[in-house]
Amino acid sequence: MVLRQIGSIGLLGLALAGCGGGGGGEGEETVRDPGGPDGETQAYRILKSTDNASSTLAGQAYRTARDGSGTVLLETATLSGTINHRTGATTLADDVYSLTDGDGPDSVGFLSDGAGGAAFVSGLADDGGTYEYVSTFIMGYEDGGSDYDAVGVVGIATSAGDVPASGSASYNGDAVVDVFQSSGQTSMTGDSRVSADFGAGRVSVTMDNFSARDSGGASVAAPLDSIAISDMTISGNGFSGGSFSARSGGAATDLTGGATLSEAAGGFYGLEDGIPDEVGGAFAESGPDGVLTGVFIAD
């Protein structure tokens, strides 16, 4: 199967400039699990670990579905799965499709199940960047006569019991955003800043410093200066909801013409010094005048 070009396929090649969480010598970071019996430890293995062990995967994405009539459905989706660190065998699943590649990813992070499902997971590539626990991904498949594409983040999620109930943390990283309007598609890459207030149970994200290209790959002026998603609600090891705002030319703007869909979801990944080490998420907003989709990832 050939993955259709949706969103910013350039996110797969992002030089993700996170500083990483400093996993241990055998590709794992061992932390105290406050929910474990008798204080037993829990290991958070990094995605690129080669330990003889498996880890559970979790993630968030925005997903499009195109049926035979050309109708497009846009929604957010939750991802689950597993990875065997020694063999590379990987399963990625949403609520529609489950993809399993028993051989694991190739050198560029490509996975295929031989039955029409395929995915790229940038953090599983040989040069998968420096985020240790979470990665951008794109997955495509066919089901029930519709073509599906999901773009988002996936990784080794922080245990819900390890998410603090107080304090705060800040994360800095990358963002990929696509704007679809009648005039065409603009793909933007930029920075993300994520603030988590664990005591208040809220997460906010700001994305800015964008550079942009049109659908032909030519550099163009970015249509937005910044995007903010404020006051997403923490639940377990994830967060969702919140309110969207965007600015262009120093003023508030709405490229969708009044959103009829506005969804965002993210999660915490790994653990360091009792704090989730990395974060990531996906969002989608659409209205009569356009569609805004994106992914953020930070540590």
Automatic annotation (TrEMBL):
<dbReference type="InterPro" id="IPR001677">
    <property type="entry name" value="TbpB_B_D"/>
</dbReference>
<protein>
    <recommendedName>
        <fullName>Transferrin-binding protein B C-lobe/N-lobe beta-barrel domain-containing protein</fullName>
    </recommendedName>
</protein>
<dbReference type="InterPro" id="IPR011250">
    <property type="entry name" value="OMP/PagP_B-barrel"/>
</dbReference>
<feature type="domain" description="Transferrin-binding protein B C-lobe/N-lobe beta-barrel">
    <location>
        <begin position="163"/>
        <end position="298"/>
    </location>
</feature>
<dbReference type="Pfam" id="PF01298">
    <property type="entry name" value="TbpB_B_D"/>
</dbReference>
